[in-house]
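Check this:
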Amino acid sequence: MKNKLIVWLTLLITGCSNDWEFLQPQDKIDVIWPSGCLVVHKDFTQDDLFERIDHVVKTYGLSGVDCHKEDISMSDSIGDTYSNSDQKRAEAFYKILHAPETKAIWVGKGGFGSSQILEIFEQRQWSLPMRRVPIIGFSDATYLHLLAHVNQWPSLHAPMVTLLQETADIMGNPSMNKEANIVQLMGVLKGEITEVAYTLDVLNPSILSHFPPDRIFSTTVVGGNLSVILRNIGSSTALNPDGCMIFLEDTDEFFNRGRDHLTHLIRAGVFDHVAAIFFGDWTLKGIPLEELIDDFDQTLRKRGIHIPILKSSGFGHGPVNQVLPLGTKSTLQFTQDGKAILKCSVNQSGY
């Protein structure tokens, strides 16, 4: 509560807004490389990727992208597995964050590595600027979403540069996000789409007796990759989902390990005061996700936690990865046929 008051007073004094501003035709998108090394298909070069995504973004009426290829030097990273050394990746992110011309920050590639960026932020006591810009990405980018979350920045859970239909051939046609494209994201960034609406399945329908279909509930969606959220417990960027809808997605996982992950989140109190839980794509090995969720719901009930548990594919590591605004003003309404309608402003802060 104290941190929220400090942020609110600072915004009041400076005249800044918690919302991010829509991009104009003269604006570029800055691409960052906070995580894994960039390896393209043998028939292409990195420059082919940079030129392709710049051209695609220009076709949507913006001034293109700055891929900051000078920030990529895999040979400088430990084990040659990251896009650059921890220090240089952190410095590049910080520099772009604070550049006055930055309008949107798009994560180029996931994997591992954003954790070390947050560690260096803490070592150097770096802060985020007061002017909000959207941070775009998913998976390992959840570390950056959590940094945005604790600073009350809205952000966008969405596809990355290297996981799009538009760049698939250059990246060797990965199966992940193979049907994801840039169309919706461009509409969101330009303000042509100011609200997204999604229909979600209710996995514990007995809860619906507490939620009349004619009532609209205000909420805010927070979260991201389940494993990353788990690894941030106890840190300065631990997710605080109280009063919010928590969104969770992850890569393929053995069900018993996934069950352990959820159990740890329960024991850590993450779900104690959330409004609802929303599962995106998460394929389990061994049992269907719905079976694990039923077990999960029973465990929550034994702790006196009775909340809607919702599900929809198309968010995260599946074939499709739709834009899900995080930290924005949102509403949830249940329908007569047992579904839930989630509506989210794309840029208006819910903090």
